[in-house]
Write a structure and sequence with these properties.
The protein is an alpha/beta fold. It has two domains: about 5-210 and about 385-410, Aldehyde Dehydrogenase, Chain A, domain 1 (3-Layer(aba) Sandwich), CATH 3.40.605; about 215-375, Aldehyde Dehydrogenase, Chain A, domain 2 (3-Layer(aba) Sandwich). The chain has helices spanning about 1-20, 25-40, 45-50, 55-80, 120-130, 145-155, 190-200, 225-235, 255-270, 280-290, 330-340, 350-360, 395-400, and strands at about 85, 95-105, 110, 135-140, 165, 185, 205-210, 215-220, 245-250, 295, 300-305, 320-325, 340-345, 345-350, 365-370, 385, 390, 405-410. Helix 4 (about 55-80) runs parallel beside helix 5 (about 120-130). Belongs to the aldehyde dehydrogenase family.
């Protein structure tokens, strides 16, 4: 296995060196053709994602990937072109020199795909890696090999050289990082992130980690509680709770906590119910033992705790659950949020100006005001967290640049006084 992987990466690296010399406009043409083929064959996604309503597949998988294609077609060329530095800001003792900064691909990027959004998330990362000039080794999540074959077949049909992408078996993991890749991009849990980071460190391979989120929601005193209830019900139920930026920790002031709980119950009762998972039941039992309350409504675990037991929520459970946390003020909410080991996304509900001021104090990498989840699918926006939620970014301009490394080139034209 190790020898096979080493040989495969060597072949990918050779292909990447040739691909890096292909003009960016030609790479973008492939992305445009891919978008057309994806749109033409979108109906086939029913076959690969039968467990989901097709409308949800369109909204959560197809539309964001399509938007990312259009973003890359529009923005990639100017973003990746060499940037010449003028004389302004140049130290006086470097007179007679000029400088340029180029964005160069890493080489071979290993993309480890997730199971919650198995088309959209790795699809965007693969496209960004390829447009940036890299070759790609892609390991899909278990159970999604056929979908991965479909994705790569559309890329090859669009004109992408077959030598640039290698599809790895979804169950191939234990020996995967013994060979050095040039960059590893993981979307997964915090535990998986630790394992991959340790393996990558042995070969000093840089990584981008998009990991777990236990997202906070701040309900300001003047928030529209009906809107908050609808948003929380939507966010906790989307994809059966398997969304990394699903809402979980909901900070509410005393005057709003009971009205919000009532509005949530009424909204969740209209949702179709799935049986709660064992891990969700364990969390609910722990909350009750600590003096809190737990109930299951519409397939969502609705929990009530106070600030003294909030550390029980410092847990990564990829299921639909909401914990209403009573706080005296939003200042207390911010301090409690800072105690969390996770900082991926956050949402705030209330007057815009107050929310904007509060948002500046949060650690999360993606923040929504008077909404949640959906605005983060904007292809122009970067996505990433800190703490146990990972590091680095994917998507947007910053995500495309993260697939490259900056190379500085300085030229001496005259006045090399130090060489006289």
């Amino acid at each position: 296995m190790f020898d096979d992987e080493s040989e495969s990466v060597s072949r990918l690296r050779e292909a990447a060196s040739l691909w890096a010399d292909v003009p960016i406009r030609r790479r973008i043409k492939i992305v445009r053709r891919f978008e057309r083929y994806l749109t033409k064959h979108v109906g086939e996604l029913r076959r690969f994602l039968p467990e989901r309503p097709f409308a949800q597949t369109i909204v959560a998988e197809f539309l964001p990937l399509q938007a990312a294609c259009r973003f890359l077609s529009r923005e990639a060329a100017p973003l990746l072109k060499p940037h010449a530095l003028g004389w302004r800001g140049r130290p006086f003792w470097l007179i007679g020199t000029s400088a340029i900064v180029e964005r160069r691909p890493f080489g071979v990027v290993l993309i480890l795909g997730p199971g919650n959004y198995p088309l959209m998330l790795p699809g965007i990362q693969i496209l960004q890696a390829l447009v940036a000039g890299n070759a790609v080794a892609f390991k899909p999540a278990p159970g999604y090999d056929a979908l991965a074959h479909f994705l790569l077949s559309l890329l090859k049909k669009s004109g992408l050289p077959a030598s640039l992408v290698r599809l790895l078996p979804s169950d191939q993991s234990s020996e995967l990082l013994k060979t050095r890749y040039d960059l590893v991009v993981l979307t997964g849990s915090a535990n998986t992130g630790r394992d991959v980071a340790l393996k990558a460190a042995k070969t000093l391979t840089p990584t981008i980690m998009e990991l777990s989120g236990v997202d906070a929601v701040f309900v300001l005193p003047d928030a529209d509680l009906s809107l908050v209830a609808r948003a929380l019900a939507f966010g906790s139920s989307l994809n059966h709770g398997a969304t990394c930026i699903a809402p979980h920790r909901v900070f509410v002031t005393p005057q709003n906590i009971e009205p919000l709980a009532q509005a949530l119950r009424a909204t969740l009762k209209r949702k179709s119910a799935n049986s709660p998972s064992g891990s969700t039941k364990q969390l609910a039992a722990a909350i009750e033992r600590a003096g809190g309350r737990a109930e299951f409504i519409g397939g969502v675990a609705l929990l009530r705790i106070d600030h003294q037991t909030i550390d029980l929520l410092n847990i990564d459970i990829f299921q639909p659950w909401l914990a209403l946390v009573e706080v005296a003020s939003m200042e207390e909410a911010v301090q409690l949020d800072r105690r969390s080991d996770y900082a991926l996304g956050a949402s705030l509900f209330g007057p815009e100006q107050e929310c904007e001021m509060l948002a500046r104090r949060l650690a999360a990498g993606s923040i929504c005001i008077n909404d949640l989840i959906v605005p983060t699918a904007d292809p122009r926006l970067p996505f990433g967290g800190k703490k146990n939620s990972g590091w680095g970014v994917t998507r947007g301009r910053e995500g495309l640049l993260a697939m490259t490394r900056p190379v500085a080139i300085s030229k001496r034209h005259r006045f090399a006084f130090h060489l006289r």
